[in-house]
Write a structure and sequence with these properties.
alpha/beta, Alpha-D-Glucose-1,6-Bisphosphate, Chain A, domain 3, 6-stranded mixed beta sheet, 5-stranded mixed beta sheet, TATA-Binding Protein, 14 helices, 20% strand
Length: 447
């Protein structure tokens, strides 16, 4: 069945364009009805990032949930992984995160979590979509059974304590100068405070949200500001979160970016040495660099690949019993601790290795040389550019040229109208040529 609203990470689109108050109201009513199971007083926990449109969407969701008899707990700005953790910890029936993650401020989205703290399955999302298109008038709560809504305090402190407990009790980050870029997003309070409580010297940037500046020239999608600040402050490490703090990239003391593949390598080797790595395997996506796969192989660690999207990584981890997975973009899932990608937790695991080894971050986090990999995106307005004959011909030609000397991935984004083209191989010039050929064809088709 075709999904009308849900993508690879909830519902996402232009605020007041795709994500309207009416849509949010319908989501609240439909999801609330599906998760009303039993006679107890049902509760939903709602968090958000710092976008201006969050107020509008939050209010509409509250109306939807309370109209079907669910009580609502409002947290204010808090990371996406905190919503998953708190939904489970507070015994809520449902969790909601209002965020468009790394997208610009004028986008927004709705992510849903079940009572176990995990994002919803495709099947449940389809059930919600089915109800969203139905007349729910007769299913609304009676006047005396309407839900209540209230803001709750202390959730940031609970998440900070949760994050700190993922490290050994006696571990101190004292002596480390850390720059943390919170992208003016959901982690702007909790990430700097957690690092300070672990005794790090913290320089915080991207911590002045105004509703419009989330992810703007900052955060994990634009790490140049972080890299510059690390060099300026002569810091030991830089940490860049995205708008909802579920992904992270690092910068070493020289201001060079460390991507999610290197982070997976660092954590995987550390956990294997400590006997914490389940089944001697790591789960990543088809976008992870071949260099990671080869490096893990030298350690006796298998790399399993899934489709792009942290939900697919997590599904594979849960199905097959792995406890570490992620994406090169910085979604790192540590399933012994959390139910989704968590940028702060991943950064803390790497910082623990840095303290243990007592070496510069440039040495600790450079585990392998990346094979030449080119990733480009082509935005389109409508239609199906990948079905264009010229595009299909360009892809076929690229596959023939790469043959067995590299990999090619051409895929539509699950969160925005963009086609992503990625190729990698040992011959950088060849990789660039095949990517450019496909991009040119896509650009013509999308014109």
């Amino acid at each position: 069945m075709t999904r009308k609203y849900f993508g690879t990470d909830g519902i996402r689109g232009r605020a007041n364009g795709v994500i309207t108050p009416e849509l949010a109201l319908n989501v609240g009513q439909a999801a609330g009805l599906i998760f009303r199971r039993g006679d107890h007083r049902h509760r939903v926990l709602i968090g958000k990032d710092t976008r201006l449109s969050g107020y509008m969407i939050e209010t509409a969701l509250v109306a939807g949930f309370t109209s079907v008899g669910m009580d609502v707990l409002l947290t204010g700005p808090i990371p996406t992984p905190a919503v998953g953790m708190l939904t489970r910890s507070m015994r809520a029936d449902l969790g909601v995160m209002i965020s468009a993650s790394h997208n610009p401020f004028d986008d927004n989205g709705i992510k849903l979590f079940g009572p176990d703290g995990f994002k919803l399955s495709d099947q449940i999302e389809l059930e919600i979509e089915g109800l969203m298109g139905a007349d729910l008038t007769k299913k609304l709560a009676k006047s005396a059974d309407l839900g209540r809504a209230k803001r709750i305090d202390g959730v940031q402190d609970r998440y900070i304590e949760f994050a700190k407990r993922t490290l050994p009790r006696n571990l101190s980050l004292g002596g480390l100068r850390v720059v943390v870029d919170c992208a003016h997003g959901a982690g702007y309070r909790v990430a700097p405070e957690a690092l300070r409580e672990l005794d790090a010297e913290v320089i915080a940037i991207g911590v002045e949200p105004d509703g419009f500046n989330i992810n703007r020239e900052c955060g994990s999608t634009e790490p140049a500001a972080l890299c510059q600040k690390v060099k300026e402050m002569r810091a030991d490490i830089g940490i860049a979160l995205d708008g909802d703090a579920d992904r992270v990239l690092l910068a070493d003391e020289r201001g060079r970016v460390i991507d999610g593949d290197q982070l997976l390598a660092v954590i995987a080797q550390s956990w294997k040495e400590d006997g914490r790595l389940a089944k001697d395997g790591v789960v990543a996506t088809v976008m992870s660099n071949l260099g990671l796969e080869r490096y893990l192989g030298t350690l006796g660690i298998a790399l399993m690949r899934t489709a792009v999207g942290d939900r697919y990584v997590l599904d594979h981890m849960r199905t097959h019993g792995y406890n570490l997975g992620g994406e090169s973009s910085g979604h790192i899932i540590l399933s012994d601790h959390t139910t989704t990608g968590d940028g702060l937790l991943a950064a803390l695991q790497v910082l623990a290795v840095v303290k243990k080894q007592g070496q510069p971050v440039s040495q600790v986090c450079h585990r392998f040389d990346l094979l030449p990999q080119i990733l480009k995106s082509v935005r389109y307005r409508s239609g199906r550019p990948l079905e264009n004959p010229d595009v299909r011909s360009a892809i076929k030609d690229a596959e023939a040229r790469l043959n067995e000397r590299g990999r090619l991935i051409v895929r539509p984004s699950g969160t925005e109208p963009v086609i992503r083209v990625m190729a990698e191989g040992e011959d950088k010039m060849l990789v660039e040529e095949v990517v450019d050929g496909i991009v040119d064809a896509l650009t013509e088709a999308a014109a």
